[in-house]
């Protein structure tokens, strides 16, 4: 079978800001953002936040950011997130990192983003661990440091954070910051692919096509290419079209 050159995707992936904040809500076991609170409940949350309860401060901050049950006000959102973050609330620290990274309610400041991600990451917040790793990977807000990037990607990946699993696979695949190991790359691609991450599905498929890190297996390659293509991955569809040609 003709070998198809592996087309590795870019290392860093991005999550939409509001999507990530909805994950923060889930981490805190609060109600989803789509369920608007009645006014008395908002009042109760406000009172709890003013009494210094960190989870209520997080909840209120996210609601101001998203305009959920209150008028959207990014500055107020960041105000309450900071109150919670300063008390050590990890999800608030993570959300503050996002706010600084994206310039939502505060001027964009990658150094501040890193500082808040670091606080949350050290408490085991997987999303913050991934984004801290990405900042080290790209040298934004901190000096570029591939060993630190890998350290934090691994921490997040071991908790099932899909972007971290994919990025760790790319580092192994290309020998970035560690010894190249295509078997390890395939292992991490497989973990992310099974969570539906199209870039990992694509890279895993190419690994099977070329027999890199896994036994060559065209059936498995086509399976994962189809999965990636179904999620809109253009490169996967191109290779499926090539394979289908007589």
Automatic annotation (TrEMBL):
It holds the Pfam family Sel1. It comes from the Bacteria. InterPro entries: Mitotic_Regulator, Sel1-like, TPR-like_helical_dom_sf. It comes from Pseudomonas moorei. This is Uncharacterized protein. SUPFAM superfamilies: HCP-like.
